[in-house]
Amino acid sequence: MDTYEGCSEAFPGGKTFMDTFRDDQYANERQQNLYFPFALHKEWMFASWLLCLGISLTAIDSLLLLDSLQDIYLSFHAGKQLCARAEVLPSGPTWLYEELMPEGPIKNSVQLFYHRPIECLQSLLSHPLLSQHIFFVPHKIWTSAAKICCIYDEWLSGDRAWNI
Questions:
Q1: What secondary structure letter does DSSP report for 163?
Q2: Which of 3, 76, 116, 156 is the most buried (most CB within 10 A)?
Q3: What is the pLDDT of residue 96?
């Protein structure tokens, strides 16, 4: 792979997601328990499943009251406690909300939910699983050492990016 010389470079030094994760107020607890704020891996898996279901807190409360779950150790016994534990986990960009009243004959206002684009980009660029897949430097990928045939798999590997 050849990279374009003389273009901008990225320098290390910014905080990654993991840096932020290690520096927060619960870092010591996570050193003792990898699944903090949950007690065990199984509890973390169960809590993750419950939260991803999208069911109400009342439905979670009903589920947690089932006799078959009474013999299982859980550090939460109600939907509110589960949500409180989930709030402790590091989060990405926050959702924002605005209520808009468009001009014209409309009965209800429009609800707009959105993220701040800069926060989204910061979150993506600092994510450790994505860092090896994000490039900002034009490059050419060759099929062989003879550099006869070029592979074009994204815009930055194309001739236009190279010729800017």
A1: H
A2: 76
A3: 94
